[in-house]
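Retro notes (design track)

What went well: tokenization of the new backbones is finally stable.
What didn't: we kept losing track of which sequence belonged to which structure.
Fix going forward: every design gets posted as structure first, then sequence, in one message. First example under the new rule, 219 residues:
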């Protein structure tokens, strides 16, 4: 490919990415699904936006993966599996560009495609102690547990232990995961967490916004 062709291709990719950013900014689910049905590989621009400097844009891309993945799965299930394997690779230092929101992206895809939960859900708790995925992996477990709890029941003990972690985010998302798994806290631990004023931020799928709450509020 000569330099002119490479330049034209790069320009098209930039325009494509910017058009997707506009759809995500508008949170236009219908338009995003329409685009996904027409695009050759909608995973590519969404994956690139997982590295966006804006936390809100990264979360909008994660949310959109949940809309797009079932469309792709209907066309080519193996393409979705390749995408998940690609994200797992990008969570490895050897990739050269660690995808911090990798667990959340994988979780949103398999949350939207329950047949894939058996294949990939059990990988998520393996990142509980892996920097920088400690928070994201716990959020991911909570998200997928809304659909299927079984893959995570062996991790309940680790999640309970994490309620005493010095990191407020780990405490918060461990709590959210335990609630999603239907676990009950002791009255003593409930009282302790209700008094925890530490603040955490997360994406609210109802409003499409990043919100901040205290751990006490999450209880």
């Amino acid at each position: 490919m000569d330099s002119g062709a490479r330049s034209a291709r790069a320009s098209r990719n930039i325009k494509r990415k910017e058009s997707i950013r506009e759809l995500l900014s508008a949170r236009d689910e219908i338009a995003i699904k329409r685009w996904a049905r027409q695009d050759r590989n909608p995973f590519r621009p969404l994956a690139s936006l997982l590295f966006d400097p804006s936390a809100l844009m990264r979360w909008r891309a994660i949310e959109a993966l949940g809309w797009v993945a079932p469309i792709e799965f209907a066309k080519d299930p193996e393409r979705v599996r390749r995408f998940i394997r690609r994200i797992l690779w990008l969570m490895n230092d050897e990739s050269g560009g660690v995808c911090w929101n990798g667990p959340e992206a994988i979780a949103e895809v398999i949350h939207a495609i329950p047949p894939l939960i058996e294949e990939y859900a059990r990988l998520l708790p393996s990142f509980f102690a892996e920097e920088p995925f400690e928070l994201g992996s716990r959020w991911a477990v909570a998200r997928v547990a809304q659909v299927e709890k079984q893959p995570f029941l062996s991790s309940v003990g680790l999640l309970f232990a994490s309620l005493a972690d010095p990191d407020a985010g780990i405490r918060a998302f461990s709590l959210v995961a335990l609630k999603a798994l239907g676990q009950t806290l002791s009255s003593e631990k409930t009282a302790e967490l209700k008094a925890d004023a530490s603040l955490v931020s997360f994406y609210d799928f109802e409003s499409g916004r990043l919100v901040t709450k205290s751990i006490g509020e999450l209880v």
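Added context from the reviewer: The mean pLDDT is 94.
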